[in-house]
Amino acid sequence: MEDLKFAKYFDYSLHLSHELVKEKIDNPKEYQVVWKINSNFVTASAFRYRKDMPFETVVDKEWQVDEQPIYTDRNSFPLNVREKFFKHFGIDKMFNSFGSLYSNDGELFKQLSTFVKSSKFVGIINDDKLLYNVKFMNNNIELPFISVSAKDEIRPVSLIESSQN
Predict the structure, then answer these.
(1) How many domains does the chain divide into?
(2) Is residue 74 a contact partner of residue 80, using CB atoms and an 8 Å limit?
(3) 135-145: per-residue pLDDT in tens?
(4) Which of 31, 38, 62, 165 could form a disulfide with 43 if both were Cys (CB 3.0 to 4.6 A apart)?
(5) 108 Cβ neighbours under 8 A, 6+ residues apart
């Protein structure tokens, strides 16, 4: 299930990107991942964001990240990804202007892929083996979810604006 783990880490990192940039830019575009699953191209969410997640992040207009985590296991998904993401992309890090990176979908895709591949996340994913809000791009079939097995090959291939799918 390494492909699904990567998919969840990548999708959540994309979500965090939007969270980081929306405090600096009014109404930033939202991206969705285009996945290649076996021989199909789909848009889907590998990570189901829940409003009741046990942490809160505030990013002010000066790019200062103020996290107030309320959790017990820092090595479990999604907290392990969240912590590394803000350390990597936060203020005074690799990108002083995350808004510029975010507005360049190709570069954002490349940097998120590199971030997830290089982070070597440890810990467990206490999550299901589902992709949500699935839309097959070749025939426009939409499903609320699909189950993914260890045999399925899943990889991100592009980003599109959410309103385009």
Answers:
(1) 1
(2) yes
(3) 999 999 999 99
(4) 165
(5) 14, 17, 31, 101, 102, 159
